[in-house]
Design goal:
The complex is a heterodimer of chains A (119) and B (116). By secondary structure, chain A is an all-beta fold. Helix content of chain A is 0%, strand content 51%. In chain A, the strands form three sheets. In chain A, strands 2, 5, 6, 10, 11 and 12 form a six-stranded mixed β-sheet that branches. In chain A, strands 3-9-8-7 form a four-stranded antiparallel β-sheet, with no helix packed on it. Chain A has a two-stranded antiparallel ribbon with strand order 1-4. In chain A, a hairpin with a 2-residue loop joins strand 7 and strand 8 (64-69). Chain B is built from no helices and eleven strands. In chain B, strand 4 (31-37) and strand 5 form a beta hairpin. Classes of the chains: A mainly beta (119), B mainly beta (116). Chain A binds chain B through residues 4, 33, 35, 37, 42-47, 50, 52, 91, 93, 98, 100-112, and chain B through 2, 31, 33, 35, 40-45, 48, 50, 55-56, 58, 88, 90, 92, 94, 97, 102-110, 112.
């Protein structure tokens, strides 16, 4: 069975601080995908990044960066110089590679980390 | 803006009733998934439809059922509503098979269902 653990329930930071959201996963699959989604108060889940299990390169996109470490089954997300607009709930998710449809849409989500950025 | 729209946005039902939630995907998205998100929790996978057939189901009872139509719009039906069914129901669609894009799920804003 797949499992995603986000141990941090809520994090509060002051604007411009860096913040790291932790994600630890469990799976018996050798091929899988890892995701991060942002959920603002509107409720819509906004896709941030996907990583497949064979790509351990870290990625940076503007103020966002992701650290994938297969050895520790972790996929952590860092926001540099946080802003008030970053306030949201962030979900880490895991999916097996779907051989039938080719899509990775049966996601197992963590419980989320609520990030509050204040001035 | 993901192009995935859900209706209604909010719904109040009483225990024992039946409910139908609707989702309209982007054109060309032939896979749709439904998720249930209880308050303070992460979304839980209900089921997925691919080309109008169910393709995988999470740990939900048979009173949760779905349909996908030829135009790839979708419905989630829940019979015999229980208080614990109160949650945000999210629909997500995926584009056609394409190595570059098929990993993305596009979510709607959800339907908030309250069962009294």
């Amino acid at each position: 069975a797949q499992k995603v653990t986000q141990a941090q329930t809520e994090i509060s930071v002051v604007e411009k601080e860096d913040v790291t959201l932790d994600c630890v996963y469990e799976t018996r699959d050798t091929t899988y995908y890892l995701f991060w989604y942002k959920q603002p108060p509107s409720g819509e889940l906004v896709f941030l990044i996907r990583r497949n299990s064979f790509d351990e390169q870290n990625e940076i996109s503007g103020r966002y960066s992701w650290n994938f470490q297969k050895s520790t089954s972790s996929f952590n997300f860092t926001i540099t110089a946080s802003q008030v607009v970053d306030s949201a709930v962030y979900f880490c998710a895991l999916s097996e590679a779907e051989r039938y449809t080719g899509t990775a849409s049966k996601l197992t989500f963590g419980t989320g980390t609520r990030l509050q950025v204040t001035l | 803006e993901t192009g995935v729209t859900q209706s209604p946005t909010h719904l109040i039902k009483t225990r024992g009733q039946q409910v139908t939630l609707r989702c309209s995907s982007q054109s060309g998205h032939n896979t749709v998934s439904w998720y249930q998100q209880a308050l303070g929790q992460g979304p839980q996978f209900i089921f997925q439809y691919y080309r109008e057939e169910e393709n995988g189901r999470g740990n939900f009872p048979p009173r949760f059922s779905g349909l996908q139509f030829p135009n790839y719009s979708s419905e989630l039906n829940v019979n015999a509503l229980e208080l614990d069914d109160s949650a945000l129901y999210l629909c997500a669609s995926s584009p056609t098979l394409d190595e570059a894009t098929n990993e993305k799920l596009f979510f709607g804003s959800g339907t908030q269902l309250s069962v009294l």
